[in-house]
Amino acid sequence: MARVARSRVIAATPQEIWRVAGDVRRLKRWWPHVTRVEIDDRERFTEVLRTQRGRHLRADFTLIEVRPEAGWRAAQELGTGPFAGVLSSHEKAIELAPEEGSGTRVTIIIDRRMRGRARLGGLFARRAAARQAQAALDALAVAVDAAA
Prior knowledge:
Elements: E1 2-10, H1 14-21, E2 34-39, E3 44-50, E4 56-67, E5 71-77, E6 87-98, E7 104-114, H2 122-147
Antiparallel strand pairs: 1-7, 2-3, 3-4, 4-5, 5-6, 6-7
Helix pairs in contact: 1-2
Pfam families: Polyketide_cyc2
InterPro entries: Polyketide_cyclase/dehydratase, START-like_dom_sf
């Protein structure tokens, strides 16, 4: 199991951050490796990811929870896609909490449960999830600043 949470204070209001982070169509601006987002309906979306080798993979997600200006949580639909052999479940979430003074504490949570032999690489999966969460936080701060 690889569950990580990374936080950062961004010098913006929850409303300003929500304008960028609350719209999954804008994930390509701040979530690592996402090149495009396709909206299926109000609760389902597909991320088109680009691998380091240049291949494109599709990852289907369902929004489980949306709290305007406070956060959202999404679960990946693994089915028989390219991630099904490695993951038994995958969820990601973003939480926004106002900080005293000026700013908002943004927390990104990634929870991946590995399947089969992939469970042996738990430490590597945890490190990869931590890097992804930190990269997403850093890119979100830049995207929010650019949108202001």
